[in-house]
From TrEMBL:
Protein name listed in UniProt: Purple acid phosphatase
Domain Calcineurin-like phosphoesterase: 244-435
Purple acid phosphatase C-terminal domain ranges (all copies): 450-517
InterPro entries: Calcineurin-like_PHP (IPR004843), Metallo-depent_PP-like (IPR029052), MPP_PAP (IPR041792), PAPs-like (IPR039331), PAPs_C (IPR025733), PAPs_N (IPR015914), Purple_acid_Pase-like_N (IPR008963)
A Pfam short name: Metallophos
Similarity-based family: Belongs to the metallophosphoesterase superfamily. Purple acid phosphatase family.
Keyword line: Glycoprotein, Hydrolase, Signal
Chain intervals for the UniProt region annotation (Disordered): 1-20
Classification via Gene3D superfamilies: 3.60.21.10, Purple acid phosphatase-like, N-terminal (2.60.40.380)
EC identifiers of the protein: 3.1.3.2
Length: 545
């Protein structure tokens, strides 16, 4: 793989310390996060800035808090995706004094910057821009999740979808024009818009417009904000079969690009993502680059996502509200499913599959809103009409990898019995950067009436793979297949009783290979389990997956 540090963009930012007597602040110890390659510690800001000056890379900055609660800066670069022609345009007051020479921006650190709280609301704003042409009016980061509700049922054979996109120009209307013929938009809909501020960053205008009713299994052509650029997407089928692509912990690296290219080769109907989308980790421009990165895919098929730990982005005192970027950008149809939070929701698709998206980082104890919502949601599912029940969450409940051991245990103890009694068929998780498939299980024991648990956190993120598994783990006997490779999964629900699951690893030659596959039988068709809310099977009952 090409090292992007060797091919910096023309607009790389060089950081130089001002030649003045160092202040006490300039002696503060700092860390530099080297994008995809780890961290580097320095005993002083002076030495850190000298190192940055010598690096041929794009440099950005964010804030951190030292162990002594002293305010400092964390410098670093995140140019992990060399195919993205993005750069940072920075306007600064109070803290720094920029100057431009020959198209480059030089950041000069003052010897004693004002680091009091008022500086946090000063004039520093960070935006993304695209090279080569003016994109202020053009829609970008376009994606199309379907909405739920009666319009999505097979009986109505129609859908609604919410088109979301971002424009830099705040005067662009929240308008979507669409039709079934390219270039002919015979229907229009308007919606709402929002934006957010995260420390020194201000987002573009984020548009959300619901369109429909739409016919099932149909290609629609659409444009956003009255701009001529045309997109197209295909609605899910009204009935089985349906194919889901499943990817976790995606990020935006060359590995991610390979994974998405392999997904696009399949004829999938909907993509499911169990958390950790952009890996922005507070670097808000990386949410923008991620949106552009996945737009060629997310604008053509419905993407349904739930949150992960890398999407939280909260700081004590200074930015206490978590998931601001995630909630603002990736709005899911939570209200349509009776949920009060974008962090957990459910939807029906193809008239036969009920998908529950759970929030590993929302409260989940028995008195929480999420728990009560899940109880009510599962009670509405008639498995005679909707034979398949699939759940997604981020932190896995079963995991033999050394990474993230036990992090999903408290949620498992709180909610596992709900999914078990509802006879959930499959539970997908991410978080661990590897692939692992477990047999049907309940309460850490093999159980033919429990869900099959699958970890699919190997989408391609910048942190790399979780390489080590514990063969002596208490759940090792439940683990049927495990491998630390990047890839994606496909769940094809063929009919009301059977579905085919396959995991596809990324190969070094840019191809993909089926590494694991299995047929899954719906528990709604299992006489041994007595249907939904049935009794616990005897220990002699054979476990199959």
């Amino acid at each position: 793989m090409q090292d992007s540090r060797m091919t910096p963009p023309e607009d790389a930012i060089n950081v130089k310390p001002q030649k003045k007597k160092p202040s006490k602040w300039m002696s503060t110890a700092v860390q530099i996060k080297e994008g995809c390659w780890g961290k580097r510690s320095f005993p002083s800001v002076q030495q850190a800035t000298k190192w940055i000056q010598e690096r041929p890379v794009n440099v950005h900055l964010t804030m951190l808090f030292s162990p002594r609660s002293k305010f400092a800066f964390k410098f670093g670069h995140q140019f992990c995706q060399p195919n993205l022609s993005l750069y940072l345009t920075i306007s600064i007051r109070d803290l720094f004094h920029p100057k431009k020479e020959d198209g480059k921006t030089t950041m000069v650190f003052p010897s004693a910057p004002r680091l009091a709280l008022p500086a946090l609301s000063s004039g520093l704003r960070i935006h993304t821009a695209a090279t080569g042409e003016d994109h202020r009016n053009s829609p970008h980061q376009v994606f199309v999740p379907p909405t739920t509700g009666p319009c999505l049922s097979s009986r109505r054979r129609s859908h609604e979808a919410r088109v979301s996109w971002i424009t830099d120009d705040r005067h662009v209307p929240s308008l979507v024009e669409y039709g079934k013929v390219s270039g002919k938009y015979d229907t229009a809909a308007t919606g709402e818009h929002t934006s957010y501020i995260y420390f020194f960053y201000t987002s573009g205008k984020i548009h959300h417009v619901t369109i429909g009713p739409l016919e099932s299994d149909t290609v629609y052509y659409y444009r956003c904000g009255g701009i001529d650029q045309e997109f197209s997407f295909k609605t899910p089928p009204a009935a089985l079969p349906i194919e889901f692509a499943v990817i976790g912990d995606l990020g935006q690296t060359e590995w991610t690009a390979s994974t998405l290219a392999h997904v696009a080769e399949s004829n999938y109907d909907m993509l499911l993502l169990p958390g950790d989308l952009s890996y922005a980790d507070t670097q808000q421009p990386l949410w923008d680059s991620f949106g552009r990165f996945v737009q060629p895919y997310a604008s053509k098929r419905p993407w349904m996502v739930t949150e992960g730990n890398h999407d939280i982005e909260a700081f004590p005192v200074f930015h206490c509200h978590p998931f601001v970027a995630y909630d603002s950008r990736w709005r899911m149809p939570y209200e349509e499913s009776g949920s009060a939070s974008n962090l957990y929701y459910s939807f029906d698709v193809a008239g036969a599959v009920h998908v529950v998206m759970l929030g590993s980082y929302a409260d989940f104890n028995a008195s929480s809103a999420q728990y009560k919502w899940l109880v009510a949601d599962l009670a509405k599912v008639d498995r005679r009409i909707t034979p398949w029940l699939v759940a997604l969450l981020h932190a896995p409940w079963y995991n033999t990898n050394l990474a993230h051991q036990g992090e999903g245990e408290s949620m498992r103890q709180a909610m596992e019995s709900l999914l078990y009694r509802a006879r959930a068929d499959v539970v997908f998780a991410g978080h661990v950067h590897a692939y692992e498939r477990f047999t049907r299980a309940y309460d850490n024991k093999a159980n033919p009436c429990g869900p099959a648990y699958i970890t699919i956190g190997d989408g391609g993120n910048r942190e790399g793979l979780a390489l080590q598994f514990d063969k002596h783990h208490k759940s090792a006997s439940l683990s049927l297949f495990r491998e630390a490779s990047f890839g994606h999964g496909r769940l094809k629900v063929v009919n009301g009783t059977h579905a085919h699951w396959s995991w596809h690893r990324n190969d070094e030659d840019d191809g993909s290979t089926v590494g694991d596959q299995v047929w899954v039988e719906s528990l709604s068709a299992s006489a041994a389990c007595g249907g939904p809310l049935g009794g616990v099977p005897s220990a002699s009952t054979k476990v199959e997956l």
